[in-house]
Amino acid sequence: MKSLKKRYLRDNLMKVFLVGNTIVVLTPLIIILLYVFIQGIGAINIDLFTQELGSPSRAMTGRPTGLVHTIIGTFVVDILALIIAVPFGLGAGIMLSEYPDNKLNPIMRVMNDTLNGMPAVLKGLLAWALVVKPMGSFSGLSGGVALAFVMLPIIARSTESSLMNIPWSIREAGLAIGLPRWRVIMSIVIPASKSGLATGLLIAFARAAGEAAPLMFTSFGNNYKSSTLIGWIMGPVDTLPQRLYSLAISPYAQWHQLGWAAGILLLSFVILSFIIVRIVIREKNY
Amino acid sequence: MKLVTKFIVLALMLTVLFGANLQAQRRVELLGAGASFPAPLMTAMADEYRDITNRRVTINYQSIGSGGGIRQFSEQTIMFGMTEAFLSDEVMRNIERNTGGKAFNLPITLADVVVTYNIPNIEKGLIFDGPLLADIFLGKITRWNDRRISALNPGVRLPRLPLQVVHRSDGSGTTNLWTSYLSKVSKEWETNVGFATSVNWPTGVGANGNEGVAGIVASTPGAIGYNSFSYALLNDMSYGYLKNSSDNIIPPSFDATSAAANIELPEDTRILFTDTPNPIGYPAAGFAWMLCYENMEQNNSINSKQQAEELIRFIIWAINEGQQLSEQLGYAKLPTAAVERSNAMIRQMKWRGEPIGRNILDNE
Questions:
Q1: Does B304 touch chain A (CB under 8 A)?
Q2: Chain A residues within 8 A (CB-CB) of chain B?
Q3: Phi and psi angles of residue A73, each rounded to the nearest 5 degrees, phi first
Q4: Do the beta carbons of residue B189 and residue B138 sit within 8 Å?
Q5: Which of A86, A132, A227 comes nearest B29 by C-beta?
């Protein structure tokens, strides 16, 4: 039997080890956040949120230039992607977890994993062939479709695993009082796993929000706001990750600055949506 | 359940919002894409044109490279393409078969390539001639104090520094222009390497984009590479002067570049005039072209006659008034020979058989 002192010592060592590991994991994240923040904060001003980008000579001659069209475009494309991906992703996840005996499931699981592992740029090409080519124009819609391909497998997987966490006995309770199976899923299983579902959606959303490659030949980019509202969906639009990339590879110092600012915007966009969804979920947890 | 309802509500709201806006506004958006070299000029023209039309006409130009421009133009996902390498005969034939009309290559601005180098204590202005440059890029000359370099530059003390060739690793119009120049001045280059947007380089290190080549040249004493003139100016790089086919030493300049193009041009302007016969012309220069269909209604991405007409009006503006923007941005102006050829092509542009190009040119 070891002495109490030794036990405390071991306990403390373990604590130090765990805290140390946490710090090691968090350090790169904090360094990235800080670095982007320090580099980009200088370019954050009111013009960034009110002006359009235009040509590089605008930035070089000090005329106002900003990313208002990029911010709106990112919202449009990401929301379109969610609208497209969520029904299918949830559906596939429900199918995998609630109807485990279905013959399609093994195939679906393999295909889902394949889609998840596929390079994002291929999903962009797919969206180009499915939407851009027939429409004859690059569009926010096609960008949404491309990002939906990115989100879909992640949503399906996370839906499956969070629904699986609900004990089978709860479903049986619902069935026992005479509810049909779909009603059990909609009114018992999904509400019970709401927080898990939301986390899955968020992870999928955050992953897609940072993708530039699938948008290059779908939403394509735009230096201005769309002149009509429908143009945001049916015409080419700008998105933060893609604009960030093109600003970064440009030869202009002013645009590099703007690129860092775009980085801050993208990071805060993702972090904000995490915070908002967390708050919404918590309030409704009765 | 709630989540699903929310999304449906959101979708409905969006539909109502956008539906209310469907009433056609007179505003027009024109979409073009292609070569990255003319992008700063095109976007500046777009800014300017938007101002003078009171935000009625917006030109969205995205730089995706010459290859991408030709590809998306052929796929008809953009209203006009932009390229530093003119359409090949095969592409022209395919387009003629698919659309029943020609594809036009309209010169929109000029590209010029300068040789850039990094030799300690030596500024711009080293003199090179074609055969010498070909041998440098073939890897035959390995030191800066080589007799052939000194012979062209009497009075310059060249160090015994190894020559490090830097070239583009990506497909690029700049490479096309540069290798076309080397092909014209050196038989050996023409047979062993040839010219294209990317070639099998006999020597040297590759770098991505103008900025990549510039980066390696700037950080490597003894490096020699090639960049577009505007890029070299913008980044304060040392660049060389070239001896042209008339044995005149030509410092790169906008006038020398314009002069290079002021020669007898073929009707479709598909010509590489590197090693120009013009005695005051800069030898490593070429056109950047805008691509358009003769039968504009055949282009899937042009939806209305109004869009086609506005596109033609913009092209006319760009090759005339728009050229005023060139020099401050580092581009040479189009010579009159090129503008005349473009006008002749614009005259042939049609919308469902109606000669809208001719109507606009004659009436406005």
A1: no
A2: 54-58, 79, 82-83, 86-87, 132-133, 136-138, 186-187, 190-191, 197, 216-217, 220-224, 226-231, 233, 235-236, 246, 249, 251, 284
A3: -60, -40
A4: yes
A5: A227
The pair of three-digit structure tokens given for residue B123, joined into one six-digit string: 């500024």
Q: What is the pLDDT of residues A130-159, one digit of tens each?
A: 999 999 899 999 999 999 999 999 999 999
Residue B193: count other Cβ atoms within 10 Å of its Cβ. 19
Residues A68, A51: Cα–Cα separation, whole Å? 6
Kindly report the number of other CB atoms within 10 A of residue A74's CB atom: 26
Q: How many residues does chain A have?
A: 286
What is the distance of C-alpha A219 from the center of its chain? Answer: 16
Question: Regarding beta strands B223-228 and B80-83, do their DSSP bridges make them parallel or antiparallel, or are they unpaired?
Answer: unpaired
Task: Give this prediction's pTM.
Answer: 0.85
- DSSP 8-state symbol, B298: G
Give B76's contacts in chain A (Cβ within 8 Å). Answer: 136
Distance CA A218, CA A147 (A): 10
DSSP state string for B96-138: HHHHSS-EEEEEEEEEEEEEEE-BTTB-S--EEEHHHHHHHHT
**What's B252's DSSP letter?**
-
Amino acid at A102: N
pLDDT in tens, B262-311: 888 999 999 989 999 899 999 999 999 999 999 999 999 999 999 999 99
Number of CB atoms found within 10 A of residue B263's CB: 15
Instruction: Determine the Cα–Cα distance for residues B319 and A110; give it in Å rounded to an integer.
Output: 56
Q: Cβ separation of B301 and A136 shorter than 8 Å?
A: yes
Q: What is the DSSP letter of B159?
A: -
| Beta partners for residue B114, in sequence order | B227
Amino acid identity, position B196: A
